[in-house]
Amino acid sequence: MTASSDNASPRRRARPAARAGHPSPAGAPAGSPGPALAEVLVAAAEAVRAVLDGSSLTEALARTPAPLRPAAQALSFHAMRTLGRARAVKRALIPRDPAEPLLDALLLVAFALLAADAPGAGADYAPHTVVDQAVNAAAGKRRLAPFKGLVNGSLRRFLREREAVLARLAGNDEAAWNHPAWWVKRLRAEYPGQWQDILRAADRAPVLTLRANRRRIGRDALIERFAAEGLPALPAGESGIVLPQARPVQQLPGFAEGWWSVQDAAAQLAAPLLQPRDGMRVLDACAAPGGKTAHLLELADLDLLALDVDAARLARVDDNLARLGLAARTRAADVADLDAWWDGRPFDAVLADVPCTASGIVRRHPDIRWLRREDDVGRTAALQARIADALWRVVAPGGKLLYATCSIFQAEGVNQAEAFAARHPEARRLPAPGQLLPQAASERPGEQHDGFFYALFAKV
Ligand SMILES: C[S@@+](CC[C@H](N)C(=O)[O-])C[C@H]1O[C@@H](n2cnc3c(N)ncnc32)[C@H](O)[C@@H]1O
Q1: What is the per-residue pLDDT across 101-156, written as a single tens digit (0 to 9) for each?
Q2: 276 shares its domain with 166
Q3: What is the Å distance from ligand 1's center to 98 Cα?
Q4: In Å, how far from its chain's centre is CA 156?
Q5: pLDDT tens for each residue of 72-82
Q6: Separation of alpha carbons 325 and 215, rounded Å
Q7: Is 289 in the pocket of ligand 1 (CB under 6 A)?
Q8: Peptide bond into 35 cis (omega under 30)
Q9: Both 426 and 330 in a single domain?
Q10: ipTM of predicted assembly, 2 dp
Q11: Candidates 209, 261, 262, 286: which one to mutate for ligand 1, based on the most atoms within 8 Å of Cβ?
């Protein structure tokens, strides 16, 4: 799991400087002027454009110039969380998508700010400041300059006709829930009593959850060390602590010393479910970046092989283990191709944290919902089944396979586990949490978690 990266959320910045068109960069002293809002709008529009063209927001923001990045990150996160409504507003006022892709994205970012619902939800900027700065943004960029009249006219028209435009969006699921319509339809069908709560939870700013490395420091001692630094934290599960306000992880004590890792509370359930004991032969089949590999090794002295098909991501497993003072064998391989990597010796425990649509972690990664396509769900489920079937062959008699995904779609969870059990009569289901749903109703910080699915099988 990666750190929540929206700790510069515009919700938390309401400084006078921001109202004057200068957002203060995250981490800068209050009142210190940041870059002009016009520059930030262009940088955020470039990031949003990249996502609409298929890039992840993390990759896109890595290309943003460093001085603009914190403010561009805050705006682009906000735009991702409100893109459904912003797009519907834009189409109500400008029915044909502009031919210039960056203009389209600039309009989306500006409408995301202007159409925000609640005061504070991206509304740190006075509406007329947003309009003026968006026009400046267009004027200052050669590709956009011919369209500054369109920017000015459409944004001002929205300010004049706001209520009437928003009223025309009634019944538009994408605008109402800020998720693609197919996503809303799927959740409505799969969770008739909970879908609204799940969607609402997706738009809350996430807490920051860490896992104490018990080889270095216990959970409660870690809470005390953070408290001594003025960082209140709550316990979450056996090894977890929650910081109600996300922060840049580099600013927290003990990272370099390997005291902790960033890991969501639901993800922290994986390693204990396999009940690792000293000397066990364990396979972490889809290991990168190594969050669960490290947790397994924190719990017991294991003979552990960590595989991942992506060699670059696998390098992060080595880095993370070194920081935490842990060791495993790592190998880049397609886990379903047993001939390529398996020496024929079975494993006592296998963790299959399979690739998935990541529909359970949209709170931390609000771009995911716009990157996925409906047919990704079936394609991903087929890959998961292929991986799970291959892995079942490497489990020792009496050994266990833990199937895990950070998805909330049933094709990747409940249905997948049932189909697996039907294909493998020698697989006995053991108690496991099943589907965990992120829900707005259980929003106490210590109880927040991502959407996850777990099924545990023993080979009889
Ligand atoms: C959900 S992530 C794993 C997260 C990891 N277990 C952790 O806790 O940090 C899924 C991983 O599966 C890997 N993967 C996808 N297809 C694979 C395959 N055929 N064989 C091995 N790894 C694969 C991806 O590269 C990705 O790193």
Answers
A1: 999 999 999 999 999 876 554 557 899 999 999 999 999 999 999 999 999 999 99
A2: no
A3: 38
A4: 34
A5: 999 999 999 99
A6: 8
A7: yes
A8: no
A9: yes
A10: 0.99
A11: 286
